[in-house]
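agent> fetching stored inputs for the adenosine monophosphate docking request
agent> found them:
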Amino acid sequence: MINLSSLEIKNKNLVIRVDMNVPISGDKVLDTTRITACIPTINYALKNNAKILLVSHLGRPTESVFEDQFSLKPVAACLSEIIDESVEVVDQLDSKKIFNSASRVQILENIRFFKGEKDNSDELGSILGSLGHIYVFDAFGTAHRKQASTHSAIKHASIACAGLLMEKENSFLSQALNVDDRPYLAVIGGAKVSTKLELIKHISNVADHIIVGGGIANTFLKASGKNIGTSLVEDSMLDVAKNILNHKKIILPKRVVTSKTFKGENVNKKSIHDILESEMILDACLEQEVISLIYSAKTILWNGPMGVFENIYFEEGTRELAKAIATSEAFSIAGGGETLSAINKYIKLDDVSYCSTGGGAFLEFMEGKVLPSIEVLNSKEIGS
Ligand code: AMP
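agent> prediction call returned; pasting tokens
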């Protein structure tokens, strides 16, 4: 993969695919994390006197329709404040107009307004790929989607490379798949086995131990013959769960927090052997065995909460897990939207060695898949 830092970009015109798909209310950006993640590449380009056209999607608009609620104008205003530089919004793919403008930083309106984005069209891809001198892909969060700006544009660009964020994601996440520093502990939680199945299968080939929590654990507990009352469960996954349990690497909760409702009535901490028919398991207690594994691990991968952490009655497992990971000396990697929310809630992003910006892309990378954007970036040579 060609990296931005290995190319001569002085005075060049760069088209940079970023992921600025942020939550917006009215004209206000509610969470700037994804915008901030793009700043190193933008600043690096500006320091080298390059001109920039940013390309991003926002939400799920209808293709070919310019809808105000999905406009990138609030993102442009927010970015402009962060980099202290004017950011012009353009809605035409006209290379001469764009790069003859006095603005050093411009942003194209939501790429999903443009026909051909979703279908990975060669036509849109070749326009995007030839707009500037170099097509820079820095949108790790969308690297698992095969669309015109994430695949075809890279294919058609005479020079395409990975931006600084993309380079960082690729290098840290690759480290978590090719681990030398053991013991390697994976902690996987969240709602459903079906969305994490491939991750659990792949990680069970590389990790030494896998701690399973959250709603996912319920399916494994039921598969191992436990009564889980009215807990969230995926009965269609029971056979798969039984097979995975044969690996012997899976560690399930022994004590849990139960309630009859999500509201926090009759909350009890109890052994997994004492669950009543009328109760749900809504959090997993962090056992001493798990804490010891966290402290003795050299590498930790974390995805998914241990319980319904959005509710104070069921947050303890996730909170204590986050704190234990923060104090462990292991090289730790976390990813996924809910996991990052939990990290922001209970510890700091800096307490984890690396927090990925990807949700779906992070999961697919960790499942051992080659993401479409990475595959096409890997195929590029200078001038191809
Ligand atoms: P995911 O996006 O798959 O990581 O799932 C995150 C969601 O799983 C969070 O919103 C949690 O509320 C939910 N969750 C975690 N544990 C449980 C549980 N025991 N029962 C129901 N939902 C859960």
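agent> quick read of the result: The first strand starts at residue 13 and ends at 17.
agent> awaiting further instructions
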